[in-house]
Amino acid sequence: MQLNVHFILGTKQGDFLGAEDEVMRVTQSVVYVRGRLSADDRLIAHADGVWNRLGVWQAQPCSSTP
Hints:
Number of domains: 1
Distance between the termini: 46 Å
Shape: elongated
Structural class: mainly beta
CATH topology: Thiol Ester Dehydrase, Chain A
CATH class: Alpha Beta
Helix content: under 10%
Number of strands: 4
Largest sheet: 4 strands, antiparallel
Strand order of the largest sheet: 1-4-3-2
Strand content: over 45%
CATH superfamily: Hotdog Thioesterase
């Protein structure tokens, strides 16, 4: 439904990137999330979004034919 990404700094090849995520709120139909991407305690990017919940997929047993 919505995704906002804010790029703050660039990185160099070989930088170790770390990511943090957080679910802010969950309703019956949507999930509100945010996250941060950092390298050596430097904020590289942060994002937030609102996502539709699609439900939990469950495999159904196969029916056998006589």
